[in-house]
Design brief:
Number of helices: 0
Order of helices and strands: EEEEEE
Radius of gyration: 15 Å
Largest sheet: 3 strands, antiparallel
Strand content: 35-45%
Helix content: under 10%
Distance between the termini: 32 Å
Length: 127
């Protein structure tokens, strides 16, 4: 049995946000953007994320017609500016196979650092 999922990630090492699609154990990068300035250095700058500061991320995933799906990643750094769209990708089948058009499992993945999750919710927002 193989599973498919979308995996939005904010990477503390290089300061990038990335949207990936995983099918049968293989990750396909759909989009990425540099969010936090600086150059990673293992000793001098081992993380580019702000430290000791809460940040929130949310993802919207929705079908666009019958042949593609859109994945949006939003960030709220709690500075008072609210939610902002930082990355978007559309899958029409170019990332490892057919787009994921039906409901399935949801989860969170984090790399490289300890994090706390507060109020994790997966909800169907369809009318």
């Amino acid at each position: 049995m193989s599973f498919a999922l979308f995996s939005p990630i904010v990477n503390p090492v290089d300061g990038n946000a990335v949207i990936k699609k995983k099918i049968a154990g293989v990750y396909y990068t759909m989009a990425s953007v540099k969010l936090f300035a600086g150059q990673y250095d293992r000793n001098q700058a081992p993380t580019l994320l702000p430290q000791d500061q809460w940040m929130s991320i949310k993802t919207r995933v929705f079908n666009q017609g019958t042949d593609s799906v859109c994945v949006q990643l939003y960030l709220n750094d709690l500075s008072g500016t609210g939610w902002r769209l930082v990355l978007e990708a559309v899958d029409s089948g170019q990332y490892g196979g057919a787009p994921i058009l039906s409901s399935g499992f949801a989860g969170i993945r984090t790399d490289f650092m300890d994090v706390d999750f507060d109020r994790y919710v997966a909800a169907d927002l369809a009318p």
